[in-house]
Amino acid sequence: QVRLVESGGGVVQAGGSLRLSCAAFGGTFSRFAMGWFRQAPGLEREFVAAMSWISGTTVYADSVKGRFTISRDNAKNTLYLQMNTLKPEDTAVYYCAAVYANGAVTTRSTYNYWGQGTQVTVSS
Questions:
Q1: Which end of the chain, N or C, is more open, meaning fewer C-beta atoms within 10 Å of its C-beta?
Q2: Is there a contact between 96 and 35 (Cβ–Cβ < 8 Å)?
């Protein structure tokens, strides 16, 4: 059984930074393709960033490219999302996701393990 637990969300002013963490329990973390998604009220869950395990390849949504950085620490079974220069439109519940796959996975339906989400609110 795989369990993902996000933390690090909160309220921040526009232009500020937050770092989200996603701790994984169970499974073989080092073999997971990992991703971050977000969902704003009334909208569908959308892709934010993904990272492969085999090559360290990262992929970002255009809306966050240059501002967000995804990283992982396999020794700690933890995935991170460093978010800088935050904007009000980044406000959403952020979810981490995992799947046993070799590449960086950007498709929501491919992931089969999800965390419960952490709220990020960016005030203007």
A1: N
A2: yes
